[in-house]
Amino acid sequence: MVIAVPLYDVKEFWKFNIRIGLVKEAEKLRRTRNLIKLTVDFGDEQRTIISGIADQYAPEDLAGKKFIFVLNLTPKKFSGVESQGMLVVAEDSEGKVYLLPAPVDVPVGVKVW
């Protein structure tokens, strides 16, 4: 089955600030079912990013690894903690989430095109 998706001009894609970040710390947010609080190093700054994947991944699955993040999203509070970006993951049709680790040799902070 083919799912119809809207098409966008490539100029829309360039608006996103997508970068490689290193997860320095990861912890499950108390009183939540599936939220993990990440402290992520982007080279020139650190940010707090909340991800809703704790039902499928433990904090130790993320700590010390590099992933792809979107940084220029409007900050949003989850359980009283402000998220300053979004972890990019893949999800299949059955709801299984897949982490997309960046190669070890890619420097922290590098832009993704």
Strand order across the biggest sheet? 3-2-1-4-7
CATH architectural name: Beta Barrel
What is the number of E strands? 9
Q: Tell me, what is the CATH class?
A: Mainly Beta
Q: Count the helices. How many? A: 1
The coarse silhouette is globular
Low-confidence region ranges: none
The largest sheet is: 5 strands, antiparallel
Give the radius of gyration: 15 Å
Ordered list of secondary-structure elements with their pairings:
Elements: H1 10-13, E1 18-28, E2 36-41, E3 46-51, E4 66-70, E5 76-78, E6 81-83, E7 86-87, E8 89-91, E9 97-99
Antiparallel strand pairs: 1-2, 1-4, 2-3, 4-7, 5-6, 8-9
What does this structure look like?
With about 110 residues, the chain is mainly β. It has a single domain (about 15-100), classed as OB fold (Dihydrolipoamide Acetyltransferase, E2P). The chain has one helix and nine strands; from the N terminus they run H-E-E-E-E-E-E-E-E-E. It has one helix at about 10-15; strands spanning about 20-30, 35-40, 45-50, 65-70, 75-80, 80-85, 85, 90, 95-100. The protein has a five-stranded antiparallel beta sheet with strand order 3-2-1-4-7, with no helix packed on it. Strands 5-6 form a two-stranded antiparallel ribbon. The chain is globular.
Concise overview:
The chain has 113 residues and is mainly β. Helix content is 4%, strand content 37%.
List keywords for this structure.
37% strand, two-stranded antiparallel sheet, five-stranded antiparallel β-sheet, 9 strands, OB fold (Dihydrolipoamide Acetyltransferase, E2P), 113 residues, mainly beta, 4% helix
